[in-house]
Amino acid sequence: MPRNVRNWWIKGRADGAAKEVTFGPRLGDGGFQMTIYQRDKGEVTLALELDGEWIDGKLVLKLDGPAVGDFRKHVTER
């Protein structure tokens, strides 16, 4: 885990990749957006969207897309 974690810290790895991909917002009230695409019968389709925001002192993580089904939201205190 990095020494200075703000609101979120995201890391991931793909098969065959030499390194992990890691990132997070630089500002204390910063957020992030991430979109994951997936092939469906040869076509590129939206699978999942993640959106992290700082709203009124709370951290709000929203998940949307066909992989989630119903809209979901996770809220915590900063």
Question: What do these coordinates show?
Answer:
The protein has about 80 residues and is mainly β. The chain has a domain at about 25-75. It is built from no helices and six strands. The chain has strands at about 10, 20-25, 30-40, 45-55, 60-65, 70-75. A hairpin with a 7-residue loop joins β5 (about 60-65) and β6. The radius of gyration is 15 Å and the shape is flat.
Strand % is over 45%
Unreliably modeled segments: none
Structural class: mainly beta
User: How are strands sequenced across the largest beta sheet?
Assistant: 3-4-5-6
Helix/strand order, N-terminal first: EEEEEE
Number of helices: 0
Give the helix proportion (percent range).
under 10%
- Rg from alpha-carbon coordinates: 15 Å
Largest sheet: 4 strands, antiparallel
Mean pLDDT: 83
Shape: flat
Terminal-residue CA separation: 18 Å
- The count of β-strands is 6
Task: Write a compact overview of the structure shown.
The protein has 78 residues and is mostly beta strands. The protein has strands spanning 10-12, 21-23, 32-40, 43-55, 58-64, 72-77.
Please tag this protein with its features.
single chain, 78 residues, four-stranded antiparallel beta sheet
List strands and helices in order, with pairings.
Blueprint: E1 10-12, E2 21-23, E3 32-40, E4 43-55, E5 58-64, E6 72-77
Antiparallel strand pairs: 1-2, 3-4, 4-5, 5-6
